[in-house]
Specification:
Elements (H helix, E strand, L loop, with lengths): L5 H11 L14 H16 L2 H21 L3 H10 L4 H16 L3 H18 L7 H18 L2 H8 L4 H10 L9 H14 L2 H17 L4 H13 L6 H17 L3 H8 L1 H6 L6 H17 L3 H18 L5 H17 L3 H15 L5 H18 L5 H12 L6
Helix pairs in contact: 1-8, 2-3, 2-20, 3-4, 3-5, 3-20, 4-5, 5-6, 5-7, 6-7, 7-8, 7-9, 9-11, 10-11, 11-12, 11-13, 12-13, 13-14, 14-16, 16-17, 16-18, 17-18, 18-19, 18-20, 19-20, 19-21
């Protein structure tokens, strides 16, 4: 994970890249999902740029990210054209290019990269310029050029990145490392642990998680990679560890290996027990872990986790600050959907909307509305007429004070 041999990393990645498939159309997207994403973006754009530029930009980027996650490149491009012209839009344009290049849309990808490059070049002209923002955009551009198979361009944009962004680029491209480079990569991960820089350690473990999927059929390396994610670097914040372990479970499930998924998911309750969580943190994670355990085949354990999360929310609601309640309910809704109970998922989403609408200030109401709309769209749960009307009413109520 050291950053010195960036050119060799980029060269290896480009040479290993498989030929992209023929250009494909966006997958099916329901009218309800599109309406939810557009409502979320509209709510994000209602946040005034002054004094909430960061919030406004992040929420807009969340809408774009949801589109790309759902394969909706055309809608993502439309939303990017309406987004504020800052570093996050630059990252979004690069991510759009990655999605387009991966499906063979090379000309469209190059056009998006040109827009991303121009935004990266203007970042340092901001009133309060910060190098990492420019490097964040350039790192994503480099990744896109890797996917496009252009070593020269990828190397050019990877040049001079600050260490954290270079480590992130290596992490994002780890899925292309070939088998004979695994041992060297693992040595690099272990050397990063000795440095102790949080961002680089997190990126190193993220690299292990990526390689876990890349090398899934290589059982020995898969075990080594999983061990580092599950227990490597003891000082890693627990929430980051949970995210990484959940990612391993997702990989095993995508590979149809429910036994591996069940084994790895077995780590999660013990990890949860390590710290004294705030109620909103514990209950959100408990619902999420319950859904994962259910998917991994531990249906009794998963249902028990979710039932506990629901019951404890009811008993501890008043201990949770109002601005955090909707987040817990959203996790419950997503978990009910995984368990196949969309009626209870919709009920939890309705409660999330109501809880998120209580704050007297419009900015946190907008944040909750965006998050709820996008999660409903991601799950594919169809909102009924009452929920749709309530979402629109909350959007209409976004006004001063912010």
């Amino acid at each position: 994970m050291r950053t010195a041999p960036l050119r060799s990393i980029v060269t290896t990645l480009v040479l290993l890249l498989a030929t992209a498939p023929a250009n494909a159309q966006d997958p099916p997207f329901s009218r309800a999902q599109r309406d939810l994403v557009e409502l979320a973006f509209d709510a994000a754009s209602a946040v005034p740029a002054y004094p909430h530029a960061k919030t406004r930009s992040k929420l807009q980027a969340d809408g774009v990210g949801a589109c790309l996650e759902l394969g909706q490149t055309a809608l993502a491009e439309q939303l990017l054209a309406r987004s504020d012209a800052d570093w996050r839009q630059g990252v979004g344009q690069a991510d759009l290019a990655i999605a387009l290049a991966a499906r063979g849309g090379k000309e469209q990808a190059r056009a998006a990269l040109d827009r991303a490059r121009k935004l990266a070049d203007t970042v340092l002209q901001d009133e309060n310029p910060q190098q990492w923002r420019r490097d964040r955009v350039r790192a994503r551009i480099a990744r896109a050029w890797v996917v496009l198979g252009d070593e020269q361009q990828a190397t050019e944009f990877a040049k001079g990145l600050e260490p954290n962004e270079a480590a992130t680029l290596a992490r994002d491209s780890a899925d292309l490392i070939k088998a004979d480079g695994l041992d060297a990569c693992l040595r690099g991960v272990d050397s990063t642990f000795t440095v102790g820089d949080f961002d680089q350690v997190a990126a190193a473990l993220g690299t292990c998680a990526k390689l876990y999927e890349r090398c899934y059929d290589d059982v020995e390396h898969r075990k080594q990679l999983a061990q580092r994610v599950r227990s490597g670097y003891a000082k890693l914040p627990l929430q980051v560890r949970l995210e990484l372990v959940c990612g391993l479970v997702d990989v095993a499930l995508r590979r149809g290996d429910r036994q591996e998924a069940k084994d790895v998911a077995g780590d999660l309750p013990a990890l949860m027990a390590r710290v004294d969580w705030l109620p909103e943190q514990r209950l959100a994670w408990l619902a999420r872990i319950g859904a994962l355990r259910w998917r991994a085949g531990d249906e009794a354990g998963g249902r028990a986790d979710l039932d506990t999360a629901v019951a404890d929310y009811e008993s501890q609601r008043d201990r949770i600050v109002d601005m955090f309640r909707a987040g817990v309910l959203r996790e419950q809704a997503a978990a009910w959907h995984v368990l196949g109970d969309d009626a209870r998922a919709l009920a939890a989403f309705r409660r999330a909307v109501d809880e998120g609408a209580h704050n007297p200030n419009a900015r946190p109401r907008a944040e909750d509305l965006v998050a709820t709309c996008l999660l409903i769209a991601r799950t594919g749960v169809a909102p009924d007429a009452g929920l749709s009307a309530r979402l629109r009413a909350v959007r209409a109520g976004l006004r001063d004070p912010w």
